[in-house]
Structures are given as structure tokens and as C-alpha cells.
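Batch 3, record 17
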Amino acid sequence: MTSTVDDVDTDTTPWYRRDRFLDVVGLLARLFLGVVLVVAGAVKVGHPLTSKRAVQAYQVMPDDLAAWIGLALPFLEIVLGVLLVLGLFTRPVAALSTLLMAVFVVGIAQAWARGLTIDCGCFGGGGEIGADETKYPQEIARDASFAAAGAWLWWRPQSLAGLDRILFGH
Amino acid sequence: MAKNSTKAKGKAASNARQAKIQAAQRSSGAGANKIVVATVVVVVAIIAVVGGVIWMETSKKNQITGGGNAVPPGVSELGAGYPAFSDATVVDGAPTVDLYEDFQCPACKGFEDQLGPTIEDLASSGRIELVYHIKNFLDDNLGNTWSTKAGSAAFCAADAGKFQEFHDQVYANQPTEGDGFTDEQLRGFAETSGITGDALTTWQECYDADKYADYVNSVEEQSFQDEVTGTPTVMIDGEMTDLASIGTPELFTQAVENATK
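Prediction for the assembled complex:
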């Protein structure tokens, strides 16, 4: 499969279209999004109350449900992040990560639109803050950049040094 | 006939392509069964998430308990705030001011530095009924137990009639956020608040037993249910106020006068 594609890669293909280069982009996207997810999850572990309240502060779900999601999110983020760093099942994992980031962006945007004054709690912390302390545009831009890395891998999951290639040969 | 031959050709080509793909997969070392690996990964992921949730919910490592149903003097039930200056003669129509604070919260220190003397003056002269709600959510956030410890210590001081003095000591000497207090420091606050002799021994026993830890936990829970999610929060006659609108002694006094019936 790979060799077939490589055959097409003649000298006339510009460098930025060559598989080797695109595979490096894939590797960087995997490491960027993967490390971000692992860090975002790890800093929340061991802070159950803060994690629950960070989700409850968005006021989009009943408090009980938000509490469970708050407890589960750190571990979900770590699992997705580790799989991305390993490059295992890159496409489905990237798709889930992209959707997760999209949900975060929507959550932050609705909080902003409704006039809530909260910290996104993206990397720990969270909850209500002063009106002059909110950072909604920055938080949305940051999460959008994570979603972009995920979307790239969703579209083109091939990358250098991933378990997908070692185990399944693609 | 021609039709059939085209079909056959197409099939042959497709077979050849299939074989090529399989060969490519073999040559690049495709030994693993994707479905087996996927199943293992999904199972491990589910165990990690569910196990993590259960562990995080049950460990609660930043929470301390103690004292059971013990409530500070003047407090009727768990979850209720502590009425300060309860010996002051309240002026007719004076509003109730509910003040929600966490002893480790830097914004609360800023608030106390700015408005503490004004609030105490209003409360001691009976122009407001002051109720403290001492919260401890920062314990979880900061990964220590000093909000609860300091809270329990303050109510142990309340047993000796020195809550306000102790409270003021805590904010005057609040450490950098995250550093927490020390047992010795809190004992020092008790001494500076004027608790001495047998009363100090009683304070120490109360403190060591975390006598009011459960009370502080109950206030945290109750205030969250009352939609107090940040500190400091000020309610005047049950109305949550915008801190900017009461941010100076003059503004605060004005707000209290406006609320006086």
C-alpha cells in the first residue's frame, strides 16, 4: 500500500505534498494534541471537587450528571492523549479528540453568550471568576488550535513513528 | 459474451489489486489482528476511565472530617452560617449581610483588607446582622487541607468567644496561595486573639480533634447549593451583590443604608 503511494511520489511532486513531509506533520499533530490532552487530564487528577465544579459551572447539565462528567473527563483525556502519542488507532482517536474539543469550544461560547463569568477549567481550576478575569476569546482560540490538530489527523491519520504503521502497516 | 469478458477482466484486476494490497500489508509487517488490538484498547480505556472515576470519588484525599454534628455557638444546624457579633444590639430594619469566604482565598484577603474594618464597625454597632459562611473548596483545588483546618480552628476560637479576632488574624497573615498554614501558626493566631491558659488548652484539643471540620464541610455543600460558587461572595438581605458595586467603604455603607428598612 505504502509502496504504491510512494511510486507516485516522483521528483515533480512539491516537497510539501510528499508523503514523508505530510507524515512528519502528522507526527507533530499527534504529539501536540496528545501531550496537551495528557497534561490537561493529569493536572485534574486528585482534585475531584474542583473537577466536578468546573463542569457544573457551565450550567448546561443537571449538577449530578455534570459531576460525573467532571470526574470522568480527566481520565478520558489521558486515554485519548496516550493513544495519540503512541499513534494507535490514530483516525478514530483523532476524531473523538476533535469532537471533544468542539464540545469544549461550544461550552465556552455558550457560557460567554449567556453572560456567565467562569474559568474554562481546561487545565485544572475552573468555576466562577470575576467578570474582568474571563478569557473567553483566548480559551476558544486555544481549543480551536487543538481541534485543528485533531482534524488534520482525522483527515490524514498517516504519520511517522506510530504504532498504527508498526502493527498494521499503514 | 463481450460483457462477460469485461466483467471477468474487472474481477481479475480487482483480485490482482487485492493481492497487491495484501502483499504490501505483509511486507510492512502487518502481523497484528486489528479487531483484537481494538478490543483490548477499548477495554483498557473503559477500565481506566471507570476505575479513575471510582478512585477519585472514593479517595477524596483533600477532605478531612471530624466533629460530626458539632456546630459553633449560635449556629442552629449544619450548613448554616455563623452569626458574628451576636451580642450587638441590632438596629430596627438592619439588613442581614451574608459573607462567604475561604481562609485560603487571596481575593478574600483583598476584600478583608479593603472592607473588613467597615463591616466589623457596622456589625458591632448593630447596623447589620453579619453572618459568616466559611467555605473550604480551595482545599481540593490547592491539594491541601488548610481551609478546613483554619476554619475549624476559627470555630474553636468561637467556643472561646474569639471568632472575629481569629478570623482577622488569618487574613492579616494569609500565606501565599497554595503554601497553606501550619499548626503552630494557627495556635499563634489563637494566642494573639487573646485565648490563653485553660481556654488555649481547650482550643488546642478542639483543633486537634478537627471538631468543626464536618461543620465547615456542611457549609461548603450548603453554600454551593445556594449557588455561591466563588469567594468572596456578599449577600445583602439574601441578594447576591456585584462586588464592584460595594468595593469601597463608602459604597458598602451606602448599600447597607439602602437596604435598611
